[in-house]
Design goal:
Rossmann fold, alpha/beta, four-stranded parallel β-sheet, binds 1,3-dihydroxyacetonephosphate, 41% helix, five-stranded parallel β-sheet
Length: 380
């Protein structure tokens, strides 16, 4: 039975959409996709809920999604089912000056269906804090020796900071290659905002914990470090973390190994070093997906990353045994804000020519942020 429901001639406020049943919202979303055709691209991060992912043209990890946005030449709009920093990155990459010029001055409109879909980790490093840290570091070490590296989970202003200072962006899937790039250029790295990704990656490169220190942006005394510790540091880690991945604990690994003999522990590098040390495999969301997709039937997994991805993996691979590593729910509440009601509302407004929640990075920030992003895209 068709659930066809026409879009309203002039779409109303979000409150009109909230009460609509999912089947109606899904049908209306598909109607917009059909009518807009190639003019519209919907991108979805792996952590999105199933109902939303069902409407995505392309699903991926942060790196794949930014590459996908960078390669869009023909669409008029990207609707990003992810979080704020991802939509900002899409705006910067899809609207690079050369791309806009090639389109005769036309920009791609980038929409985030719910503006409250932020990232608590990205919020742990504000540009004024990073600038203060840089100035403070300059009192004890030569900042010309430091390459700033920002995890893509950060505001555009931090990416611009890296662009201005010869630095680069990384994602969880290329962090090691990016750090190698950075160390080919300088003796030290300032890595923000995720201390865990920075520490876990540096350790895979043989960098000792004694050569790393943590910068607490709330400590006015050199981020809580002595001048000697900073002078001895090759990696200065920003004291930020992902509140979702912080919920996976080393004891969860122990109890899963005890309760599920033969289980393989597979975790995201945003987990703490103590969890990573006990895991069998560590990698980005796409890496996690690939491991399970490629494993023989009967493989047992204990997976430490966001709940929606893990549940979907289990459902898509019934021949394997997929367990969620934590006994408590670890879901990204901000990713979860993107639901069918917000997606339908933003799509119908977009189609009607009255777009809502447009993400537009200012030109000055974008100009420098794109330098750091292009360096990342060039790293193999
Ligand atoms: P990926 O780069 O693996 O997609 O991770 C993004 C993210 O936000 C993980 O918390
Ligand atoms: Fe940010 Fe963590 Fe959510 Fe990823 S899972 S978007 S790092 S809060």
């Amino acid at each position: 039975m068709s659930t066809h429901v026409a879009a309203p001639p002039s779409p109303g406020p979000f409150s009109d959409y909230r009460p609509l049943p999912d089947a109606v919202l899904a049908a209306r979303i598909e109607e917009v996709r059909r009518r807009m055709g190639r003019r519209l691209v919907i991108l979805g991060h792996h952590y999105q809920q199933d109902g939303v992912i069902a409407h995505a043209d392309f699903q991926g990890d942060s790196y794949q999604l930014s590459r996908s946005a960078a390669e869009r030449d023909d669409c008029e709009a990207i609707v990003f089912c992810g979080v704020h920093f991802m939509a900002e990155t899409a705006d910067i990459l899809a609207n690079r000056p050369a791309k806009v010029a090639a389109r005769g001055g036309r920009r791609v409109t980038v929409v985030l269906p719910d503006m409250a879909a932020g990232c608590s980790m990205a919020d742990m490093a504000a540009i004024h804090q990073v600038e203060d840290a840089w100035a403070d570091l300059g009192t004890v070490i030569d900042t010309a020796e430091i390459t700033p590296v920002t995890y893509i989970n950060s505001a555009a202003s931090l990416k611009a900071f890296c662009g201005r200072h010869g630095g680069i962006v990384c994602t969880s899937s290329n962090a090691r290659a990016v750090l190698e790039w950075a160390f080919a250029r300088g003796r030290r790295v300032l890595f923000f905002p995720d201390q865990h990704l920075g520490r876990n990656t540096a350790r895979t490169m043989g960098i000792d914990l004694g050569e790393m220190c943590v910068w607490n942006p709330h400590d006015p005394e050199l981020g809580g470090n002595t001048p000697a510790a900073l002078r001895g540091a090759r990696v200065i880690l920003w004291q930020g973390h992902c509140s979702v991945h912080a919920m996976f604990r080393p004891e969860h690994v122990d109890s899963m190994r005890k309760n599920v003999p033969g289980v393989k522990i597979l975790v995201h590098p945003e987990c703490s070093m103590e969890v990573v040390d006990k895991a069998d495999l560590v990698g980005s969301t796409s890496f996690i997906l690939r491991q399970v997709e490629q494993a023989p039937p009967g493989t047992k997994w204990g997976i430490g990353t966001e709940l929606h991805l893990v549940r979907r993996l289990g459902a898509n691979h019934p021949g394997q045994e997929v367990h969620f590593l934590s006994p408590v729910v670890c879901m990204c509440a901000t990713m979860y804000r993107i639901d069918l009601a917000h997606l339908c509302w933003s799509l119908e407004h977009l189609e009607a020519g009255s777009p809502v929640n447009v993400i537009r990075v200012d030109d000055e920030t974008a100009r420098f942020a794109v330098e750091a992003l292009e360096r990342m895209l060039a790293v193999k």
